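Our consortium's second objective concerns turning raw sequence data into structural hypotheses that experimental partners can test. To show how far this objective has progressed, the report includes one record in full. It was chosen at random from the queue rather than selected for favorable results. The single chain below, 471 residues long, was entered without modification.
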Amino acid sequence: MSDSAFRTMGQQAGRRSWAEPWKIKMVEPIFMTSREDREGAIVDAGFNTFLLRSEDVYIDLLTDSGTSAMSDRQWAGMMSGDEAYAGSRNFYHLEEAVRSVYGYRYLVPTHQGRGAEHLISQALISPGQIVPGNMYFTTTRMHQELAGGSFADVIVHEAHDPSDPSPFKGDVDLGKLESLIQREGAERIAYVSLAGTVNMAGGQPVSMANARALRELCDRYGIRVYLDATRMFENAYFIQQRESGYGDKSIRAIVHEFCGYTDGAWMSAKKDNLVNIGGWLAVNDPDLFDRLRNLVVIYEGLHTYGGMAGRDMEALAIGIGEGVEDDHVRTRVGQVQYLGQLLIDWGIPIVQPVGGHGVFLDARRFYPHIPQDQFPAQTLTAELYLDSGVRGMERGIVSAGRDPATGAHRYPALELTRLAIPRRVYTQAHMDVVAESVKAVYDARGATRGLKMVYEPRYLRFFQARFERLP
């Protein structure tokens, strides 16, 4: 089923419906709490949904990271975990899965994506170097800065406009990147950090043409390209649906080609790879691999487990195979498109085109009367929870943090509330409940007040900051 067909689901008489390529074998009860209980919970949490107890949440769209439902094959695989400290057979299964699907030669497992970000930053960044990328991600940029580097945004300008309909708003602006290289010198560029689907832009994809051209540009200057492959399967789906010449290619084939334009990748396996914990770093350079394999022993664990149990590596190896299946990716993105289309039909401002892993509400247009330093996206996230028990998260000024040189707030162009949908967890009925709650909050938007920050941690403040309502 095509991308356009997903967008018109439910609107055509006589249509043939699509269904998830799985059936439910086990369920976990969830409960709606009262408005009074939710009011107490959000105040206790300092209006930060990260600080809510999960038992106080009805539909949890905080993140799609580590929240997927594993298959019966994955659970069965966990029973075959080889918990040897060194040389676990599950590591070799994982190594083969990464080589087969992504194409990289050498694998370093990590406990999760953040561990891989840390290793690649420590191995490749020297103090004073620059890391250009197609929009920042919070933890990635933090690891780059802690290694002495600085991030430079080289994404296309369309990515900063939530209403721009361009199909590949994750593309690198090659002119901007080349100007940076010529101005600073190629030796000051540690590597290019390329994200497959750009989280902070609303899950927007990168085209194959852009990846190919980026490779050619970086080759001219001797600069390496490393991929954040966290949601690369979703990126491949958009290439399949939107880019000429790829409509008859499988997700697996598209992923393999795309990765071939990069020198390696880091992975939070808690997303595309369908596990609750785990990550990996894969490269083609044997000398870099040797450094990474040495570093992982210091920070994560031996190079054949990297912070994961054998059973987790086995579930991950199986999850890679399941996650790259066309039917899975099609219906996974289809559920996101379904929710997004409901909101578009009701005139609710969201990032368009709808991305692959979640729907991003445009808090600037939602609350035009709330200035950015009163945290409109954080406010919207709290109001949505109060209305229905749906938990989303802020992706705006709070997530952007402060400039390390000046200490002032960074003011991103995008002020968003993200509703990230876990894989294989919720039904379309849950999406209906979410959409109706967003509409109720939107209808009451004029009476909503902003927030003030009353506690701010030093790093990655969006995880633990606390807020109070303004009078």
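The partners drew two points from this record. Confidence is low (pLDDT under 50) at residues 4-10. The domain at 3-60+326-469 is CATH 3.90.1150.10 (Aspartate Aminotransferase, domain 1). Both points have been shared with the crystallography group to help prioritize constructs.
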